[in-house]
Amino acid sequence: MQNSTKILFLAGLLALELGCEKTFPSAPEDATLLDGPVEGLSNDQARQFLAGDKAFNAEIFTAATGLGPLFVATSCGSCHPGDGKGHPTNALIRFGQSDSSGNQFLHLGGPQLQHRALPGYGPEQIPAGAPFSKLLPPANTGLGFLEIVPDAEILALADPDDLDGDGISGRPNWVDLPGYLSPRPDAIAQHGKYIGRFGKKAAVYDLLQQTANAYNQDMGVTSTYAPFDTYSGVEIDPEVPNKTVEDVVFYLRTLKAPIARNTTKADVAAGKLLFEQSGCASCHMPTLRTGASRIAALEFREIAPYTDLLLHDMGPELDDGYTEGSALSSEWRTPPLWGLGLSKNSQGGEYHLLHDGRANSIETAILLHGGEGSGSRDRFKALSDTERRQLLAFLESL
C-alpha cells in the first residue's frame, strides 16, 4: 500500500509540474528586456538595487507624500515603462531659452512646464513668446556606464572646428555644476565648467543631478539637493529622504546595458558594415571604454552604446528654437542607439523616435537628419532597397 501511495503521489506531482509548464509562459529572454541589474553586484549592492527599483517603479506620490502642487507625473516609472523610452503622451516640455545667454523665463515657471496640478491650483501654461521644446523621456539602461566614460575619451572624439574636414564637428556641452555636486576625479574643466553627458542636449552632469531634477521638476517633490518648491519658489523641508534619492541613483547606475540580438544573421552583419560605410559611426561611435568607479561591475569595460556623448548641429530639420546650457538650438547630443530595437516595446507597439518622438520608424528618423547628419542621410538614401533593409535590420538588432 505504501509503495502504491508513493507512486500515486509522485505521479500527481509530475502532472502538476507538467500542467504548470503549460499554464505559465516561459520567462522572456534577457536580451528582450531593458530592465535588470548589471552582472557582478555584491549582495549589499543587489539589495540597494532592489530598494532603488522599488522607489523608482512602485512609489506613487500623492499630495500627502509631497506631490506637486504642480507636476508632470506621479512616479518615476510612469515616464520610463520597463526602463524604456517614453511616449508622446508623457513627453516633457522645456521652455524659456533660445541661446546661450540663459533662460529668460525662470520667473514664469521655466525651465520645465508642469502641466498638471493638485485641486485648487492651476497648471502652468507656456508663456507668450517663450521658445519651447517637446522632449520624450529616454530609456534608462546602461546609464551607469556612460556616466564613467572618462572626460579625456570624450574630448578625444571632439572636433569642434572640423579640422579633419569630414563635415562632423562634435563638441561637449560645458555646464555649471550645482553646489551639491563634486566633479569626478578624472574631470576636465574649462573656465569653471564641466562636460555634461545626460539629457537631449547633454546639459546634465551626472545621474544624481538628473534624479534630483526629476523629483523636483517632474513630480514637484523636494530633496536636500533640490529644496525649492516649483510653485512658490520657496525653500521647504525635503519631501523625499536622501537615502531614497541615492537608492534611485544607484538603481540607474547599475541597470544593465541593452543586449544586442540576432548578431549572427547575415543581414545584420551586412547592415553593420553599411552603417560604418555610410558614416553613421562618425557620431554614433560603436564602442567606448569606461573609467574608474566605486562600483567594480562598471569600471574599465568596453561598451557598445553607439554614441560619442557630444553635441552635433543637426540643421534646420531638427531645430525647434530651444536650447539648454551652451548648446545651440540646432545642436543635440548623439543619442545612444543601444536598445533602439526594443524602443517600441515601451511606446505602445510603434516607434516614436528623435527628441520629440516625431519619427514613427527608424527610416524616418534617419531621413530627418540634417546638418552634420546630412551626409549619412544622403548615403542612406542612395542605398539599394536590399541594402536599406540590411542597415535597418542591424539597427533593429541593437
Structural notes for this entry:
With 398 residues, the chain is mostly helical. It folds into 2 domains: 32-140 and 188-253, no CATH class; 266-397, Cytochrome c-like domain (Cytochrome Bc1 Complex, Chain D, domain 2). Helices cover 28% and strands 7% of the residues. The chain is built from 10 helices and 10 strands. The chain has helices at residues 2-23, 43-57, 143-147, 151-157, 207-219, 242-253, 266-277, 362-367, 374-381, 385-397; strands at residues 70-71, 92-95, 116-117, 132-135, 173-175, 194-196, 288-289, 302-303, 311-313, 331-333. The strands form 5 sheets. Strands 1-3 form a two-stranded antiparallel sheet. Helix 5 packs across helix 6 (242-253). The radius of gyration is 23 Å and the shape is globular. Residues 5-11 have low confidence and may be disordered.
- The ordered H/E elements are HHEEEEHHEEHHHEEEEHHH
Assign the structural class, choosing from mainly alpha, mainly beta, alpha/beta, alpha+beta, or little secondary structure.
Answer: mainly alpha
Strand order of the largest sheet: 1-3
- Taking pLDDT < 50 over at least 5 consecutive residues as the criterion, the unreliable ranges are 5-11
Query: How many DSSP H or I helices?
Result: 10
Q: Quick check: average pLDDT?
A: 93
Q: What percent of residues are in strands? A: 5-15%
Count of strand segments: 10
Shape type: globular
* Major beta-sheet overview: 2 strands, antiparallel
Helix content: 25-40%
> What oligomerization state is this entry in?
single chain
CA radius of gyration is: 23 Å
Domains counted in the coordinates: how many? Answer: 2
Q: Tell me the span between the first and last alpha carbons.
A: 60 Å
